[in-house]
Amino acid sequence: MALSPGEHVLVTGGAGYVGSVCATVLVEQGYRVTVIDDLSTGNREAVPDGAHFLEGDVLDAAPGVLADDCAAVFHFAAKSLVGESVVSPAKYWSGNVVTSLRLLDLMRAAGVDNLVFSSTAACYGEPATVPITEDLPTAPTNPYGASKLAIDHIITSYAAAYGLGATSLRYFNVAGAYGTVGENRAVETHLIPLILQVALGAREKIMIFGDDWPTADGTCVRDYIHIRDLADAHILAASSNTPGSHRIFNLGSGDGFSVQQVVETCRKVTGHPIPAEVAPRRGGDPATLIASSARAMAELGWSPTRSDLTTIVGDAWAFTSQLGGRAHFARG
Ligand code: UFG
Q1: In angstroms, what is the span from residue 190 Cα to ligand 1's centroid?
Q2: Which residue's CA is the closest to the ligand 1 atom numbered 10?
Q3: For residue 89, how many other CB atoms are within 10 A of its CB?
Q4: Rounded (10°) CA dihedral 235, 232, 80, 319
Q5: Where in the chain is the domain with CATH 3.90.25.10?
Q6: Is the CB of 191 under 6 A from ligand 1?
Q7: Which protein residue's CA is at the shortest distance from atom 36 of ligand 1?
Q8: Boundaries of each NAD-dependent epimerase/dehydratase domain copy (predicted)?
Q9: Residue 205 Cα, ligand 1 centroid: separation in angstroms?
């Protein structure tokens, strides 16, 4: 069932940040790509020209796509804001778990048995040790992480019972840009794009959420991975899925950077002073999250080449600084 160029791939959520970069790389590599996205958070212009685009609900549009000689599904469509999941959990259980379960049933009915699922480091919650391996206990601390973990459990059982071949990729902090696709959201909560909005003059300053964490400089440490490296892992996964097996891989660079170090890197890359101010801790943040990606490297043959922080920020800045009127966030 391994996937090869030329085959038809369904990308759900392919107008979102991660989905659109994966769709772009799939098109570049010669796959026939159909994107389904309801544009609730995605951007139409992020869908690559070479992909067929269906605007609407995944479950409405998927049956026709799956019946069209579809070889694999890359499932990104999801709600993905931790804070929102705490306030509106119904959106997450329904939008993530129910939709994914129904999509899996549609795949089963159509005989499509190759799945790559967009999972998250939030499945692990506050880890007892770092780096985080796939064998550590899963203990999500919010409904977002819990909903993604529930889907992983469903996939495991579908692989065992129904012969699905699947890979879940648990991303750490995805950042950077690829060509004309990057982080361009109306509502932005992520550190690097927010800092770059300050450099652009669209925001006055960056708030650092706490400087009293048990880390070297007191600010939270995260593992940043380049969006283009992430896309490679998805295609490697689909190309090596085997029926009856559900693999789970963490994806990060293996290096941790503090919020303060990220701000400093952005100052160097952009040449902008980027004012910063310490604010209270944000609820639900763990102090340190660093991935072990050893399993993905060994078993998928994945080797990230762009995930050093300067390259990530450089690519993100090249994207953000040329957005002009195409920015979806409010500009200064
Ligand atoms: N931060 C600030 N100021 C900001 C925004 C963020 O100091 O204005 C800090 C956060 O407190 C955190 C770090 O920057 O310490 C990174 O925050 P992000 O919001 O960029 O990312 P998270 O680590 O919170 O979240 C990421 C993914 C989630 C995923 C989670 C796994 O975006 O989807 O990792 O824990 F669930």
Answers
A1: 6
A2: 209
A3: 15
A4: -130
A5: 177-223+255-326
A6: yes
A7: 122
A8: 9-252
A9: 17
Per the CB < 8 A criterion, the answer to whether 66 and 106 are in contact is yes
- Nearest CA owner, ligand 1 atom 6: 191
Indicate if ligand 1 lies below 6 Å from the C-beta of 205: no
128 token code pair: 């007892």
Q: How many CB atoms lie within 10 A of CB 109?
A: 11
Kindly state if the Cβ of 259 falls inside 6 Å of ligand 1. Answer: yes
pLDDT at 329: 87
Which residue do the tokens 């102090």 mark?
Answer: 287
pLDDT > 80? residue 332: no
The pair phi, psi for residue 277, each rounded to 5°, is: -140, 135
Q: CA 215 from chain center: how many Å?
A: 25
The pLDDT tens digits for 238-272 are 999 999 999 999 999 999 999 999 999 999 999 99
CATH of region 177-223+255-326? 3.90.25.10
Tens digit of each residue's pLDDT (9 = 90 or more) over 100-142: 999 999 999 999 999 999 999 999 998 889 999 999 999 999 9
Whether the pLDDT of residue 331 is over 80: the answer is no
Give yes or no for residue 211 CB within 6 A of ligand 1.
no
- Taking domain 8-175+224-251, whether its CATH number is 3.40.50.1100 is answered by no
Distance, in Å, from the CA atom of 92 to the CA atom of 147, rounded to the nearest integer, reads 6
